[in-house]
Design goal:
The protein is globular, with a radius of gyration of 18 Å. The protein has a two-stranded antiparallel ribbon with strand order 1-2. The protein contains eleven helices and two strands; from the N terminus they run H-H-H-E-H-H-H-H-H-H-H-E-H. It is mostly helical. The longest helix is centred in the first third of the chain and has 30 residues. The protein has a single domain, classed as NCX, central ion-binding region (A middle domain of Talin 1), CATH 1.20.1420.30.
Length: 309
């Protein structure tokens, strides 16, 4: 029972903390007059990826980096196949050409890059350092674009009005860090109780829990008519997870995951991004693509549990 309590409490902290941190981060960024798409792919994406970072640090220090790798890869599938799929059922989502050129391309390359590094069966510290360098190269490109696309409007949807956004961000970050610790503790105990290996638990249960902030941010962005922030958050979170989170986990403790479980996760992650590519003629992600994404997520869950040892 304590394990289930920790897991449920962690999921709750992730959802509430992610929403709180998102409001504070976006409120702060809006004061700097940064374009909505850039806010989503950097500030908001970092905010919503904080639970995965907490899991990576906690599991890496405990020598259980398989949980973190499973969480990062599983979260990327949840973000695109499940969360974006649900959002697309509401209506089509427009995507800017800059987002396609920089962020969608990176999201496609990340599963291929991770698979290449895992060819020898280990994600080493050197692999982690190389991925970290790639992450900072992408982040530099995003920041330089932000400098070029200063938005002259006084606010961006998602700000906190008279409330101090910095306090919102700090409070949300505290909850997100706490959520990572609770989720790792609960998920590890459940893994032992049911005889499931740590990668599967990370890729399914933990991934769902740590993706609650992305779900909250995308729903809020859609309701407020800020699709640029929503899609930017999803894509940016995947890049943070695939490059930054995975690299942190590998640097803290080299990962030797079971390849029969990792390769399907990488394949489903790549396939979900390919299905979600905007239509060239309109620059929009269509509602019908959301249906295919949800079917893909259901297939992934079945595959993940069928392939467990």
């Amino acid at each position: 029972m304590p394990d289930y309590f920790f897991l449920i409490a962690g999921i709750g902290c992730a959802a509430f903390g992610g929403e709180l941190f998102l409001r504070g981060a976006v409120g702060t960024a809006s004061a700097l007059r940064i374009a909505p798409a850039i806010i989503g792919v950097t500030v908001a994406a970092f905010a919503t990826s904080s639970p995965e970072l907490s899991v990576a640090i906690g599991s890496g220090l405990a020598g259980r980096s398989q949980i973190s790798l499973g969480d990062a890869l599983g979260s990327n599938i949840v973000n695109i196949a499940l969360i974006l799929g649900i959002a697309l059922l509401i209506s089509d989502i427009p995507v800017s050409s800059g987002t396609i050129r920089r962020d969608v391309s990176a999201a496609v390359l990340i599963p291929l890059l991770t698979g290449f590094f895992l060819l020898d069966g280990t994600l080493s510290r050197l692999d982690g350092l190389l991925m970290l360098c790639m992450f900072f190269a992408w982040l530099t490109a995003a920041v330089l674009e932000a400098a070029r696309q200063r938005n002259s409007s006084e606010s961006v949807a998602g700000g906190t009005g008279a409330m101090n956004p910095v306090l919102f961000a700090i409070g949300g970050l505290v909850l997100l860090v706490l959520s990572g610790r609770l989720i790792v503790s609960g998920a590890t105990g459940i893994a032992r109780a049911f005889g499931l290996d740590e990668f599967i638990i990370g890729a399914t249960v933990v991934a769902l829990g740590t993706s609650m902030p992305e779900l909250a941010s995308l729903v809020i962005a859609r309701l407020r008519g800020q699709d640029e922030i929503g899609i930017g958050t999803i894509l940016g979170s995947n890049i943070f997870n695939g490059l930054f989170i995975v690299s942190v986990a590998a640097i803290l403790s080299p990962v030797r995951p079971p390849l029969p479980e990792v390769l399907p996760a990488l394949a489903f992650g790549l396939l979900s991004v390919l299905i979600a590519l905007p239509w060239p003629s309109s620059g929009r992600i269509r509602r019908v693509q959301g249906v295919f994404l949800l079917l893909l997520y259901a297939l992934y869950m079945v595959t993940a549990f069928l392939l467990r040892p």
